[in-house]
Predict the 3D structure of the following.
Amino acid sequence: MNTLRYIAFRLLQAIPVLLGVSIITFTLMAATPGDPVRLLVGDRASPETIALIRDRYGLDEPILMQYFTYLKNLVVGDLGASLRYRVPVSQLITQHYPVTLFLVIYTIVLTLPPVIALAVWSAKRQNGPADQVIRMLGVLGLAVPVFWLALLFARFFGVTLGWFPVSGFGETIPDHFRHLFLPALSTAIWVVPILVRTLRAALLEEMNRDYVVTGQSKGLGDRQIFRTHVFPNSVLPTLNLFAVIVAYLLGGSVIVETVYAVPGMGKLMVDSILARDYFVVQGATLVFALTTILVMLAVDLLSALIDPRVTP
Amino acid sequence: MTTDKIIPAALALMLSATVLSAQDAIRIASPNKVTVLDPIVSAAGGNIEAYGQLYARLLRKGANGALEPGLAESWEVSEDGLTYTFEMRDAKFSDGSPITAEDAAFSLTRVAKDEKSAYPAGFAPIKEVTAVDEDTLQITLEHASAPMLSNLEIFNAGIVSKDDVEERGEEGAFASDPVASGPYMVKEWKPNDRMTLTANPHYWREGLPKIKTVELIEVSDDNARATMAMAGEIDVNRSVPWAQVEEVNNSDGVSVALEPSTVLYLVLPNHDKAPFDNLNVRKAAAMALDRAAITNAVTLGNAEVANSTFSNALNYHDASLQPPAYDPAAARKLLEEEGLVGAEITMMITPSFEQLATLLKAQWDAVGFKTTVERVDAGLWWSNMAKGEYQVTVNWYYNETEDPDLAVRWALCDTCGSQSYYTNYHNEELNTLTDEALRERDETKRAALYSKIQQISLEELAQIPLYYAPFSIAYADRVKGLTLTPALQWTLEDAELIAN
């Protein structure tokens, strides 16, 4: 019951956060020069036509009025309509969001097994040859720019070897796995080293704690101490970092989505900003914010589950 | 079979399935977006390319570029050039209903008179469009217009279904599945991603189109499109950057075609702001530029140096003209005479002009300008242009028809609606000549008028023409008969896919 109340409280807290995000986005977009209507109707439209359409779309109203209209619609769950496509923003988000979500989850799935394996291996044989190699590869993975690596992967695995598609999302679930493999891999190569470093450091710290000696003196095996005490205690800091990285992956998806022509939220966001498609930018930002809030909440709940000292 | 064999086998299976299902579909990747399906509300690149497939016009362009009967079987022009009478063909919309003169009158009245019409310039002379009977359409003009017929072939003169628009309303009829009169209709549209077109079974040209499905995929990144083409995931890459042409040609199964276009790259000085309001400064800026070297460096020899304010693909382009020749010493002298050596100028550019801007800056600075480059995105660029808030910039434009009337109205005539491409270039004589040339129906006299227009605008350096760029489009070998016309229309209805 306590947990449920905690979740409800956290979700309630999300409301002012989202409101703040919407005000900032709205102000930023309104302050950005550039006319969405001109980009929509094309170069050669007359000033009269542009003025007429601006008026029809309500873009000539005072900014504050526009924001309140927006807020009023938002309360009843209406995110407004895209200026460019004349379709509801919710339709665009339903179309693009699952793609990015799939990509982020796929990246996580590709990330976790190597992180755990490499960090444990590295920590258990500290300063051994394997540890050195893993740490060196880690620096390399961090140093390589994602867009460049993505481009190389596309050319090598996609064009030269022909193993994986280099673009799109596909129609079926197996298709999604194939199409998003290279984008997810390119991202994972950058995420794995970060998490390996944190987890390795945490493992090393925990392995030298007094309770390990206590366990050993009680006659517990090293394996059991590691599995039931050291590892769970080391996971917590990594988990928190992981939540930050997931939030970052959502926003950072734009890089791999561009290189691999994946029709996800990153692409929608960038295109909408360039086209000054105000309501789409606004809607997409809110969805990003909400996702981040939910991920943070999930991680906090998970931390409480792992470590009873952390109370939700 | 062990697992390490199953995975490659499964992959191979999935790959072969993709190849098989792709046989009857052509996939075109373009940086240009399709954003709206109503042919009158936008004149932006991606939309123009899609409208042509969805909506047939009264006339069409044949393979040699000549006007041929389209939805109109035949036509007559009255002696005074004020009345056009079209005999409609027995054709059907994609929903099976007949395409009547009533539909044509409705569609053309919309593009000419509706206040939402984004680009009505070509139809401005129209007084009235009426359906005389079911098959006869009459267009009456306020005054003669030599390019009237060719303007009826451009993208926004497509015929839409009057019944459907009245039934569903404008927003509804064009939302996602408009009734089509062209070779294709919309099968599925995912805004901001792709549009799938399928052959219109009722299209009037029997047996066409041969390719049943067309996917228009929007990919903004140049490298992504190039990789997709090399991996065989697309059949057509709408825009290959000059630097990639050789690489594409060296890869298997795909090659680049350089196709004629009316695209003209040019320097746009703001005639309302110092120092470019001064003809001598514009002359100095033009003479400072080694345009041949610039063209060669930017396009790697794939474009032709421009000699006129008209594209060389336009009718009446005057090949005998030349802007002031490259002469940095004389350019410097001009600036010295004006006391403007060291004049600070700001060049506004969008990101795609980075390379060109570097070259322009170097050559201008060499003769005594002090150039600052200001980078903006397309949205800001257009609003600064419209407000006249810039000193000098670079861009390109193209014309929908080979007739120069619309190009002149857009780029050189300041009273024609767009302040001479927002450069505020003003010449009374040129404005008068523009209207005269529109009304003149004698070919030779028209040619003389347009030659005069080019002469004036080049002498006064309304703009500094740089080069004529062809479209550079990559096609997979299995695509036959597909080109992009200078009017930005894919010849998809005549194209086919052959087995490799």
